[in-house]
Amino acid sequence: MLKEIINKIKGSKYNKFIKLIFHLGFIISILVKVFYVQYSGKYNLPPFNQEVNNRMLWATFFTILILYSIIQIISFNKTELVLLISNILISILFLADVLYSRYYGMPLGINIILTQMGVVGDISSSVITLIRIKDIIFLIDIPIFIVVLIVISKTKKINWITKISISVSLFIIGVLGFRYIYKDVNHVIYNYERRSIVKDLGVLYYHYYDVKDYIKVEFSRDKSLSEEEYALITDYFYEQTVNEFTGIAKDMNILVIQLEAMQEFVINRTIEGQAITPNINSLIEESIYFNNLYNQVGSGNTSDAEMILNNSLFGYGTGSTYFMFPNNYFSSLGNKLKDNGYETMMFHAYEPSFWNRINIYRNLGFNRFYNIRDYEMTEKKGWSLSDKEFFRQSLDFIEEQANGNPFYGHLITLSTHHPYDAFIHDDFNVGKYQGSMLGNFIKGANYADQAIGLFLEELKERGLYDNTLIVMYGDHSALFEDQASNLFDYLGTDYSHFKWEKLQKVTGLIHIPNDKRKILVDDPAGKIDLLPTIANLMNLEMPYMLGRDTLSDTENPFVIRRNGTLITNEYLYSSQTGSVYDINTGEKLPIDLYREVILGKQEKLRVSDLILKKDAIRQIIKNGD
């Protein structure tokens, strides 16, 4: 029956009209899918008639015209088939963009596609939780295009000269129209804040920009720093100062514990009458505690957190540093302590190839990387070995490897990895949040706290606690913004984007043995500031850091997140909304009064990227500075 209908339509006099509809349908289909990406990813926000939204739609329309005209020119007599294939590929890319942005807040980049797609299989359980029924919009039109292509397959082709003339005309219209839009946007910020590209000019142009930038980075890898770049970078390095804390942990062992997805909102909180993190709460009472330590990871996620802590640099803006720059020279904590005679060890009970760890840890100064192949799977929790067993076995490795020498151990936990379904049947009572993502995360946080408590007791029993500096921090956020309703209900407040931005804090503390003081660092800080603080406590000279010592007096302290969001003691700038808010009241402030200051502080992101892509620290050391 369907075949007969198709054959009848094939011979219809309306074939040329149907063919025209096919071509217009391609443009409309891509435009609708871009619209969905823009708003589902919250790159653009209602109301739809805002200037920035209108600009994005026009820029996208002109970008599609350029793409369409190029396809027309290069496809010869197979234009409709190439349009269909292009639609399918773009739809798959946009679907990947949406899923990726729900996790990381950004579309995919070419670096991620080329270097990190092997990670996808390992995080498949997390990916599945990100899919929504409405995402079918990316594929629902494809069968229709296939049927229409069959119908018009025998339609007479238009004259080649006519086709070229139309294509060139559309290309010129697209280029001129896009340039008209482009001249009115602040594209300087695109060097370090990629969300703005999507918001201003659309996700389709973002992918063009990203590929162009990738090619430029690849060609600049081996180029020397210009005098201007050299001066810019060295001007940004933190100048270490002496204060009352300098050297009080000198020559001590150091253990850095990176807690998977441990956000600050569970600390010192209860649910159903139970403390969620009683062991961490107790440790805080005799530690340096960071009350406003913000998440700073980018698309490198957990690997970015390690990178930031060990180097006081940001992860690269459009991909994982671990994949892109594994052969760089890093002036890292591991390298510094190794030079000082420490045994340096990294611990993570997972595959060594994940995030390319096996290839970069040597350059980060770690003598030994203990991974899943070194551990016995005595108890599984979540993705791999349970945190409790991970800590116990890691201490055995530490004592064996250190053999009485001072040591630096960096331990990366894993049990509390998204989507936290390993904890759904745990006994910890989360009340009405049972079975929800929030409830499972809170159970996971309680489990991680139990593991920490056992670990601290084991350190004491083995005689290591009193001579070991303990650094503890969460690597990244735990929940996505579309899951905020339960979180705000638990916190007893109404949702607002401003409040959501303020919640993007992770757990952070430094415990100095035999020092019973509780020191609260209330100024906004980030993981990039932990290494300068550690270096001061251990009296380490480390001249190539972008963060600051949080225990030194700093005028107008601020923290910049990898996405360009800025937090100070007075205001918060959200790169997602492009708005400035009073830090205490959430009242919107006039952006024009802060724009120049915000751009100046965001430059630190560009400097960090420049250091990585030019392997700048190697060049600076070579020049004797």
Q: Short description, anyone?
A:
The chain is an alpha/beta fold and 625 residues long. The chain has two domains: 2-220, no CATH class; 240-553, Alkaline Phosphatase, subunit A.
Task: Write up what this structure looks like.
The protein has 625 residues and is α/β, with parallel strands linked by helices. The chain has two domains: 2-220, no CATH class; 240-553, 3-Layer(aba) Sandwich (Alkaline Phosphatase, subunit A), CATH 3.40.720.10. It is built from 23 helices and 19 strands. Strands 7-6-10-1-11-12-4-13 form an eight-stranded mixed beta sheet, with helices on both faces. A hairpin with a 5-residue loop joins strand 15 (558-560) and strand 16 (566-568). Helix 2 (15-40) packs antiparallel against helix 7 (142-151) and helix 9 (195-201) packs across helix 10. The longest helix is centred in the N-terminal third of the chain and has 26 residues, at 15-40. This is Phosphoglycerol transferase MdoB-like AlkP superfamily enzyme. InterPro entries: Alkaline_phosphatase_core_sf (IPR017850), LtaS-like (IPR012160), OpgB/LTA_synthase_biosynth (IPR050448), Sulfatase_N (IPR000917). Mn(2+) binds at residues 260, 302, 475-476. It is found in: Cell membrane. It comes from Natranaerovirga pectinivora.
